[in-house]
């Protein structure tokens, strides 16, 4: 693990969130991993929701590489009906918009317990011995801290990153999202969700030739509020050799099943 002097992913400067190196992604030294900006959108959701709102669906469009520049969100709320609302969120730098999100809000009446629930499972987080060990390919030439290796912790159940086939992993943020502020479960979930694509094992046969798939969105549907700091991703994928794919993930936290996640993937030839 790279030793970082940073203590959070972002620092506040007025209305702006200033990123630290812990937000850096694996492909470019001047761009973030998808997890940190997704978590920032979580802050905007929490600021715009009311006590009786239930967040049912979050769709994040990763429109362009998010640069290591200050970020803030502009949020518009539309009340579609008495029970259904929508948030439209734009994530911007001082220069341009880099990401957007649409959030479905529901206001339901209490109902009896469901007549059927999923079979009981063990939702305990594996111990430190299951911590995923990133190989040399996870390091940049300048050994800069990166979010996937240094800003988050991964405890593997099966499969793995860079391994063909489905994977199951528990993930949490290793640092606060914003310096001096508690990180909510929703923000932690959104930071972890972006890893579904990489965990899904949607790898071309010739992975040694700089060919891979990157996700261009993060779309979650959840059945309740998330809890805690650890989130389990159980991911698999469908891939078309024409150059695109779909990563599909079942989400859980330590309280049980949580929802589903899907990510559209784009075939890409990496040029470092």
Give unreliable regions as ranges.
none
CATH class: Mainly Beta
Fraction of residues in H or I helices: 10-25%
How far apart, in Å, are the first and last alpha carbons? 21 Å
Tell me the domain tally.
Answer: 1
Strand percentage: 35-45%
The CATH H-level superfamily is Acyl-CoA thioesterase, double hotdog domain
How many DSSP H or I helices? 4
Estimate the mean pLDDT confidence: 92
CATH architecture: Beta Barrel
Number of strands: 13
How would you sum up the major sheet?
11 strands, antiparallel
Shape: globular
Query: What structural category characterises the helix and strand content?
Result: mainly beta
Please explain how this structure is put together:
The protein is mainly β and 272 residues long. The protein has a single domain (10-108, 123-269), classed as Acyl-CoA thioesterase, double hotdog domain (Porin, Beta Barrel), CATH 2.40.160. 12% of the residues lie in helices and 38% in strands. It has 4 helices and 13 strands. The chain has helices spanning 35-48, 147-151, 185-193, 196-199, and strands at residues 10-13, 16-19, 54-61, 72-79, 84-92, 97-106, 152-158, 167-173, 211-215, 217-222, 231-240, 244-253, 256-269. The strands form 2 sheets. Strands 3, 4, 5, 6, 7, 8, 9, 10, 11, 12 and 13 form an 11-stranded antiparallel sheet that branches. A two-stranded antiparallel sheet has the order 1-2. Strand 1 and strand 2 (16-19) form a beta hairpin. Helix 1 runs antiparallel to helix 3 (185-193). The radius of gyration is 18 Å and the shape is globular.
């Amino acid at each position: 693990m790279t030793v970082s002097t940073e203590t959070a992913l972002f620092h506040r400067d007025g209305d702006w969130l200033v990123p630290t190196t812990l937000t850096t992604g694996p492909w470019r030294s001047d761009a973030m991993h998808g997890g940190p900006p997704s978590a920032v959108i979580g802050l905007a959701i929490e600021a715009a929701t009311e006590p009786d709102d239930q967040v049912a669906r979050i769709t994040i469009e990763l429109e362009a590489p998010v640069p290591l520049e200050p970020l803030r969100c502009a949020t518009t709320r539309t009340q579609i009906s008495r029970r259904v609302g929508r948030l439209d969120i734009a994530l911007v730098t001082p220069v341009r918009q880099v990401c957007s999100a649409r959030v479905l809000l529901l206001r339901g009446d209490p109902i009896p317990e469901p007549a059927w629930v999923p079979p009981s499972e063990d939702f305990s987080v594996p111990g430190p011995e299951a911590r995923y060990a990133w190989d040399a390919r996870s390091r940049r030439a300048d050994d800069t801290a990166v979010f996937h290796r240094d800003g988050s912790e991964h405890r593997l159940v099966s499969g793995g990153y860079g391994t063909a086939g489905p994977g199951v992993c528990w993930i949490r943020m290793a640092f606060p999202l914003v310096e001096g502020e508690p990180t909510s479960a929703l923000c932690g979930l959104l930071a972890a969700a972006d890893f579904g694509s990489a965990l899904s094992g949607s790898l071309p046969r010739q992975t040694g030739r700089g060919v891979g798939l990157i996700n261009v969105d993060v779309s979650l549907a959840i059945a309740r509020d998330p809890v805690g700091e650890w989130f389990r991703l159980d991911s698999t994928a469908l891939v078309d050799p024409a150059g695109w794919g779909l990563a599909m993930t079942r989400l859980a936290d330590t309280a049980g099943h949580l929802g589903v996640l899907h990510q559209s993937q784009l075939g890409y030839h990496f040029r470092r």
